[in-house]
Structures are given as C-alpha cells and as structure tokens.
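Hey, I was hoping to borrow your eyes for a little while. I'm sending you its amino acid sequence along with the backbone structure tokens. Take your time with it, there's no hurry, and the full record follows here.
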Amino acid sequence: MSFLSRILKKQYSGFDSKSKRSIAIIGLDGAGKTTIINRLLKSEFNLVRPTFGINIEIYKYGSLEFIVYDIGGQTPLRESLWNKFVASADGIVFVFDSADKKRFKLAVQEFYNTLTYNKKAPLLFLANKIDLKEAVDFNKIRSLFNFNKLIREQRKCEFTQCSALTGEQLFESWDWLTHQLLSKKEISSMNVKILGGYLYLSSGDMLEEFLCGTPKTQSKHFPLLKEGNYEIQRFIKQMKNYQKAETLLQTGNKQLIIVKEDELILGLIIQSDDPAARAIRILKNLHKKVAKKLANKEKINFQEFIQSDYPIDIYLEE
C-alpha cells in the first residue's frame, strides 16, 4: 500500500463516504497555509512556521465532514506530494503570498502546474497577507496569474484577497468553496439563528449587549453572553493595530462571530451549524447603519436594528 493510500485509509476510516469531502490546501512555503487553517478551523490568531510535510484537519460543516490536507510548499514536497493529493481532492485552495515579490514567477508556475493535476475540482485562490504594506495590488495579481483565462474556460473558481492574521475575507471565501462542494439538499439553510449580540467601540467600551428569546431562554444563554464579552475584549486587544478584522470563535456549543470595522466592533452569537459567512455579511451591513447613526449623534438600538432588518435570522423558541 502506498504512503498516500495509507494516509487516506487512516483518515477516512469511521466516516460515511457520502458525508465527507476532501480539500487540498497548497502554495509555496511561507504563504500562510497553516495560519489560514488555524484561523478557520481552530480560531487561532498566532503565526506558525512553514509546514514540512502534511497537516491533516477535520472540519465539520453541518452534518458533513471535510478532511483538509495542508501540504507543505517546499520544493521536495511540491515535486512528490502535490500531484497525488490535489488529483484526489474534491476542492483546491491555492494560497499566494502577495508580499513575496521575489517568488511571484515561481508561484505562477506552480499554480498552473496544479491546474493540470485536477481539472474539475472547484478552485479557491487566496492572495494572502493584505495586512502587510508590501502586499501587491490585487489587480496586478489578477493580471499576473491571468485569471481571465480560467474564467473563459468556465472553471469553478473564486479569486480573493485575504489576511490570515486579521481574518479578512477568509470566512466568506471558505463559505464559497464549501457551498461548491455541497448539493442543494445538503445545504440546510442560508440563514442563521441569532441568539444574542454585542456592540463595542474599538477602545473597549461596550455600547450594547443583548440576548434573544424569553426570559427563561435568556437566563439559559447568559453564561454564553458573559463568555462572549471576554472573547471580544481579547479580540479588541489582539486586533488593536488593524482597521478591519473578523473571526469565528466557539463559545460553548455556539459560534461567536466578531467583525471589526474602523472604530466599531460588532458580534453575534449563532448556532454551531450556522453559516459564519452569513453572520459576517449581516454584521458588515449593520456596521454601515450604526456608523451613520453615531456620526449623526442619533440614538442606537443594535438589537432593534437586527430585528427590523433580519427578522428571519432571529432565534425562535424551540
């Protein structure tokens, strides 16, 4: 049995073949692949050293299991492993270091080599490290990689900028890929169930917090609200030097989605299987409304804004 076969057999054992998908994450060494994985699947902010070998993570999306292969980008691994893992993957993520100008040519070469390994799997291209001043403009990256060629070939692909450090665009782009791999029957709902929310200033001052539901339900979820406050304060300290940031954290058996836009930090508590990208879009839309009210020195009721603008996303008593 080959090395690849042994790995696949070990990782797939115990999983229903109908409910699993595999995703290969590749890119040159130092591009930020493992940091992205930690940000998406473990809610970790820390940077890590380049991977020499393979990291394997299990990612749950509703009732489905995604097996994510994070494959090192050093030359020996590109030559020996990329082809094997990419060829068998249901989805491909190519991570590009948009600040590593010296290796742009090599990255383009390896990107197009990757396309020959698997011509059918949906492709997500992430131009990482937009938080760095050295990052190249995305229009230049589009031209460098000739993305229009792939669009003309009608390949399922998505090209976006992101920051593994701040989380910008990560969750929404990952949501695109997972939805490409799911059938309509497997996507239970595009909406979320909002259990509570937060509104903070970047200074750390809280403007509002709330829980949805009856007094009994609110009492049940109060520990989550308290834990969420702690996580938001931690997030504020970690992202204090960045104008924009977003993250997903696990609080108990729920998700806490946090978005920072300029001087405002907004958060939502949602169910564990809810699509994070939907919650992020809601928070970004609400940010515009809240920021306008603040600028005009008008009264703000964050909970009321959510209830009026997103009534179908409010948690209802079960």
Notes: The chain is about 40% helix and 25% strand. Residues 147 and 315 are 41 Å apart (CA to CA). Residues 1-17, 44-52 have pLDDT under 50 and may be disordered.
